[in-house]
Design a protein that fits this description.
The chain is of the alpha+beta class. Helix content is 67%, strand content 15%. The longest helix is centred in the middle third of the chain and has 25 residues.
Amino acid sequence: MKLADAVKPISFVKAHAAELLLEMEKTGQPIIITQNGEAKAVLQNIHDYENTQQTLALLKILALGRKDLEQGRTKPAPEAFASVRENIRARRRS
């Protein structure tokens, strides 16, 4: 589906919601919803939405890790693993 075909006014979405959901399921393409001629929202299937959320979470983790690296908040792997093991032992004792 071309992008131009995926742009629908909100009135069309209201009148053809079930049809659009079937089309999205078939094509896997999102629908761009306009209001007063301006793009306002994107309608996408739940599987793609969940994948997008997972991707964003991974990117956030990577960005935070890079920030830690740039600010020198790192330690060698053997030291980090030793710290984790000690925390596990301490929790088991309590």
